[in-house]
């Protein structure tokens, strides 16, 4: 999926004039707790059981000794063999470190990634997304969220030829390249993820772009799509099937991306670097590609067919500025049974299985009624179900029981603030006591997770509405945009603030990316209205 972490903007009616009691529209910001990217692998799963005492493997999953392994970027939970978990940790950290070194200043920060590493595929089945009512045939999956990025996989057996890392690297690539998510066409998003899915490293060297056998076999059996048709594919197109990842769309997207990045046409390779800048200027993908390559689409298509016929697909070798093969630093600790129930319930909630998740949360509550974790889970579940009173009750209970979850502080503040909106989802300044409570909860969330974009966005919007510290509001909105560059809601809120500060030129510049053809039509229309108001010197916000 190329899924976006950020919710799309859903504008409500705007006040036609600024009233004495100023109100601001709040674009809906719903955490993508349930937006999930699943890739169906049509390979035979030869995943072995983890080594360990027989009596442990015979226990129900929740009764096995689970432990947490933490690295710089990953929190891994497993009851599998520790040596397999440590190997997994090293591979994930290598990929993350390699990308960070290659991307430099373009790397985008994100909250730590949670990995649920089941000991084998059989024990993972009850925690897979449902497909037509049954657990999907997945070897692994990656789910993006603003608060947490989740990897779920089964640890491979010692003699297994399949590691499951290809699907993880594919999906992780979408996260790492999300700065371009708003402008890249679908074929490039998926093609780039496939190129990076073959990631290998030795010390200072990284190799990506190895030939992918199942794509080449399919390309030998089926004709290529015309490039105009490939460029027209969207998430709703029949050619796009995220579950199979075996269709001609994926295969040709990989082929075209590989050709442009590593093919045997050096002029195309050099010129392809201009593709993204031209997209940022507002050019459509077909126009941007032909302008970047300085040729026609039929000419590119002819070159792509020739590249496929010649059958040589050279991997991309990259040199890093640091050695990423050195041992990683990690810490490990056993987790309590109540945390085990919470983690499994939270995973189920994130894959849109709320009823089953609730069973785990209620069992956790029976097991440890003094722990904040069951109330956290029940509160997040109620918020997802839009049961606002229940969410506030359970989240408040979690805080009273000592919760230190940045997400709980954020959702609790968000639920409180939502209750102050009018029927059109507009907000007015709050009285000092109510404002102080909501502000305090958001500040606590950010103290626990400084790189949490939604809390920056909400606090920036909140401060803008309150009007007491517009400079602070702008700091938070700018930070939110840096953390979630693919989220147009951040830009919209920032433009509102700039108009409030009578900085018309800055607002006009901020709104420009919202005029691109790939932006939500309603948001684009409202941005156009705001820019027209700026031109008339009568801004609308």
Q: How do the helices and strands line up, and which of them pair or pack?
A:
Layout (H helix, E strand, L loop, with lengths): L23 E2 L11 E2 L15 H4 L9 E4 L3 E5 L3 H22 L9 E6 L2 H4 L5 E2 L2 E2 L4 E4 L5 E6 L10 H12 L9 H11 L3 E3 L2 E4 L4 H9 L5 H6 L15 H15 L3 H7 L2 H6 L4 H9 L3 H14 L5 E4 L11 E4 L2 H14 L3 H14 L4 H13 L3 H13 L5 H13 L7 E2 L4 H17 L4 H14 L3 H14 L4 H13 L3 H8 L9 H15 L6
Parallel strand pairs: 4-5, 5-9
Antiparallel strand pairs: 1-14, 2-8, 3-4, 3-13, 6-7, 8-9, 10-11, 11-12
Overview of this protein structure:
- With 541 residues, the protein is an alpha+beta fold.
- 49% of the residues lie in helices and 9% in strands.
- A hairpin with a 3-residue loop joins strand 3 (67-70) and strand 4.
- The chain is globular and about 70 Å long.
- The model is unreliable at 1-55 and 158-162 (pLDDT under 50).
Largest sheet: 7 strands, mixed
Question: What form results from the Cα inertia axes?
Answer: globular
- Strands in their spatial order, largest beta sheet: 2-8-9-5-4-3-13
Helicity, as a percent range: 40-55%
Query: Helical stretch count?
Result: 23
**In whole angstroms, how far apart are the ends?**
33 Å
**Would you tell me the structural class of the helices and strands?**
alpha+beta
Radius of gyration: 24 Å
Q: Could you report the average pLDDT, rounded to the nearest whole number? A: 84
β-strand percent reads: 5-15%
- The number of strands is 14
Contiguous uncertain segments of 5+ residues: 1-55, 158-162
């Amino acid at each position: 999926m190329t899924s976006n972490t950020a919710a799309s903007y859903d504008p409500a009616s705007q006040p036609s004039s600024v009233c004495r009691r100023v109100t601001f529209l709040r674009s809906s910001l719903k955490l993508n707790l349930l937006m999930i990217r699943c890739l169906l692998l049509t390979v035979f799963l030869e995943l072995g059981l983890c080594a360990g005492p027989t009596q442990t493997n015979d226990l129900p999953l929740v009764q096995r000794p689970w432990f947490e392994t933490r690295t710089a970027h990953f929190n891994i939970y497993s009851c599998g063999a520790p040596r397999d978990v440590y190997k997994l940790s090293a591979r994930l950290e290598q990929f993350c470190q390699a990308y960070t070194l290659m991307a430099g200043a373009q790397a985008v920060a994100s909250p730590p990634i949670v990995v649920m590493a089941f000991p084998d595929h059989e024990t993972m089945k009850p925690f897979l997304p449902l497909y037509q009512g049954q657990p999907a045939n997945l070897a692994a999956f990656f789910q993006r969220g603003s608060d947490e990025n989740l990897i779920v996989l089964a640890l491979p057996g010692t003699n297994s030829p399949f590691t499951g890392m290809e699907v993880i690297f594919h999906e992780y690539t979408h996260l790492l390249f999300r700065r371009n998510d708003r402008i890249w066409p679908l074929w490039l998003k998926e093609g780039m993820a496939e190129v990076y899915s073959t990631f290998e490293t030795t010390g200072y060297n990284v190799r990506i772009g190895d030939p992918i056998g199942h794509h080449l076999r399919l390309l030998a059996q089926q004709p290529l799509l015309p490039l105009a048709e490939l460029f027209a594919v969207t998430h709703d197109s029949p050619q796009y099937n995220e579950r199979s990842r075996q269709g001609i769309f994926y295969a040709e997207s990989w082929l075209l991306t590989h050709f442009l990045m590593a093919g045997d046409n050096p002029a195309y390779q050099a010129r392809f670097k201009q593709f993204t800048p031209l997209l940022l200027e507002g050019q459509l993908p077909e126009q941007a590609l032909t302008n970047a390559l300085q040729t026609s689409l039929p000419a590119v298509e002819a070159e792509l067919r020739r590249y496929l016929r010649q059958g040589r697909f050279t991997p991309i070798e990259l040199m890093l500025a640091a050695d990423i093969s050195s041992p990683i630093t990690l810490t490990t600790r056993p987790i309590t049974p109540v945390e085990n129930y919470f983690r499994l319930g939270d995973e189920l909630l994130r894959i849109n299985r709320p009823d089953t998740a609730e069973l785990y949360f209620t069992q956790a509550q029976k097991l440890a009624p003094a722990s904040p974790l069951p109330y956290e889970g029940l509160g997040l579940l109620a918020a997802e179900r839009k049961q606002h009173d229940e969410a506030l009750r359970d989240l408040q209970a979690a805080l009273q029981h000592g919760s230190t979850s940045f997400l709980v502080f954020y959702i609790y503040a968000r639920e409180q603030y939502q209750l102050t909106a009018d029927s059109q989802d507009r907000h007015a300044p709050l009285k000092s006591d109510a404002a102080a409570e909501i502000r305090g909860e958001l500040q606590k969330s950010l103290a626990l997770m400084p790189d949490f974009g939604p809390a920056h966005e909400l606090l920036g919007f909140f401060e803008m509405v309150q009007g007491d510290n517009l400079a602070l509001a702008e700091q938070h909105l700018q930070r939110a945009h840096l953390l979630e560059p693919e989220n147009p809601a951040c830009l919209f809120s920032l433009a509102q603030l700039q108009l409030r500060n009578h900085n018309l030129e800055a607002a006009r510049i901020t709104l420009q990316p919202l005029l691109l053809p790939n932006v939500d039509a309603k948001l684009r229309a409202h941005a156009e209205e705001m820019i027209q108001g700026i031109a008339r010197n009568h801004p609308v916000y």
